[in-house]
Amino acid sequence: MINVEFLKTLTILYVEDDEQVREKFGVILNKLFKEVFVAHDGVEGLQKFHQSNKDGLYLDLIISDITMPNMDGVEFLSHIRKIDKNIPFIFTTAYTNSDFLLSSIQEGVTDYFVKPVDAKAIIQKVQKTCQLRQKKNEIVHYQNEAQKYLDVINKVAIVSIFDYNGDFTYINDFFLEVSGYSEEELIGQNFQMISHPDMAKTIFKKQWDTLQAGKTWKGKLKHISKNGETFYTNTTIIPMNHEDKKINTKYISVRFLTTKDENEKREYKRKVFFSLQETKRINQAASDKIVHLKNHITKYKKLDIIEDKLNAQKEISSKYFEELQGLESKISNIQNSYQKLLVGANKQIRDTLKNAQKMKERKESAYEEADVAKNEIQIRIELIKRLRYQVNAQSRKIVDLKDVVLHRENQLSEKN
C-alpha cells in the first residue's frame, strides 16, 4: 500500500535519456514526492547530485536508466558510490544484459526493473527501501544517543552487572575508584561483598526476593570500601530476562553516591517547605477574615439611623484593617525568610555534593564542614520555632480583634 504522506517527505533524482519515458514517468513522480530532480544522462545526473548536496537538499534515492549517452548508468552509479555508499540506487533498463547487471551489483545497486516499468511496483519499492533506510538511520541515531548516555552514567554512577547467582560479571571504572578494589578482586565475587556489616540481612533477603520475582529493586544502601571507608548510595537494580521472559539471566545495578549529611539536609528542606506552606495557609486565613469583617461592616451602610455610629465604627475598623495589613506584611516577611532558608539549604546541598567528590583528599575538612552545617541547621530550626511563635501570636491577635469587633456590634444592636 502506497503511503502518500511518507512519499511527500522524500527527495529523489530521476535520470532517463528517453524523453517520452522521462516526461511521462516524471509527471507521476512529481505528484507523489516532495521534490524530484530530473536529468537526461549520467553526466547531468552527477551534476545535479553535487548541486543538491551543495544546496542542502540531500537526496533520499536515485532512479536511473542503465543505457545512456555520455555516461551510462553503471559508470554513474560508480561515481555516486565514491561519494555516498549508502544512498539507495534503482536501475530501469530495457535490456537484461548480464554484464551490465553484474557490474551494477558489484557497484552496490539496490534493485532494478525491466522496462516498460510498472509505475506502482517501482513506487512501492522506493517507499519500502526508504522506510527501511529511515529505520536503520533511527536505530543508529538511538544507539549513538544511548552510548552517550551510557558514557555519562559511567562517569558519575557506580555500575555493575551480576549473574543469576549474584556474582559480579562486569564492573565499571567508577566502581573500582570508589570501592578501592581491583577488577580481578571483584569479578566472580558476590555483589553484596561491599555491603556494610551494619546493614540488616532482612534488607538483602527482601532485595533478592524482589529481583528473583523479575522486579526492579530501588533503595538506599550503606557500603564499605576496601580501605574501610563508609559510603552511601541510591541504588537501582534491574533484572534482565531471558528470551522466554521467565528466567533472569543477569542483573544490572546502577548506584549514585550520596551522604548521610545529604539525607539529613533533604529532610530539613522538607520540614522548611512544610512550615512555609503552613505560613501561607495562616496568611490566607487572615486575609479571609479581613474580607469577612469588611463585608459584615458594609451591611450597616443602609441603616441611616445609626449612620453616625457606623462612621465612627468604620474609623475604628479602618484602624483594625491597617493593623491587620501590618500583620499580613509581617507574615509576608516571615515567608521571605523561609524562602531565604530554602535558598541557603539548596546552596549547602550543592556544596556538599561538590565536597563529596573530594571526600578522600579532604576527609577531615569535610567532617568539620559537616559539623558547621549541622550547627547552622540547628540554629535555623530554632529560628523557625521563633517564627512559628510569632505567627501564632499574630493569629491570636487577629482572634482578639475579631472579638472586639463583635463586641462593638453587640453594643450597637443593644442601643437599637
Structure characterization notes:
With about 425 residues, this protein is α/β, with parallel strands linked by helices. The protein has 12 helices and 10 strands. The chain has 3 domains: about 5-150, Rossmann fold, CATH 3.40.50.2300; about 155-260, PAS domain (Beta-Lactamase, 2-Layer Sandwich); about 260-415. It has helices at about 5, 20-30, 40-55, 75-85, 100-105, 120-155, 175-180, 185, 200-210, 260-300, 305-355, 365-415; strands spanning about 10-15, 35-40, 60-65, 90-95, 110-115, 160-165, 170, 215-225, 230-240, 250-260. The strands form 2 sheets. The chain has a 5-stranded parallel β-sheet with strand order 2-1-3-4-5, sandwiched between helices. A 5-stranded antiparallel β-sheet has the order 7-6-10-9-8, with helices on both faces. β3, α4 and β4 form a beta-alpha-beta unit. The model has no long low-confidence stretch (mean pLDDT about 80).
Number of helices: 12
Strand content: 15-25%
Please, how many domains? 3
Quickly give the structural class: alpha/beta
Query: What would you report as the Rg, rounded to the nearest angstrom?
Result: 39 Å
Low-confidence region ranges: none
Query: Major sheet, described briefly?
Result: 5 strands, parallel
The overall strand count is: 10
Share in helix: 55-70%
Kindly report the spatial arrangement of strands forming the biggest sheet.
Answer: 2-1-3-4-5
Order of SSEs:
HEHEHEHEHEHEEHHHEEEHHH
Cα shape = flat
How far the N terminus sits from the C terminus, by CA atoms, comes to 90 Å
The chain-level mean pLDDT equals: 81
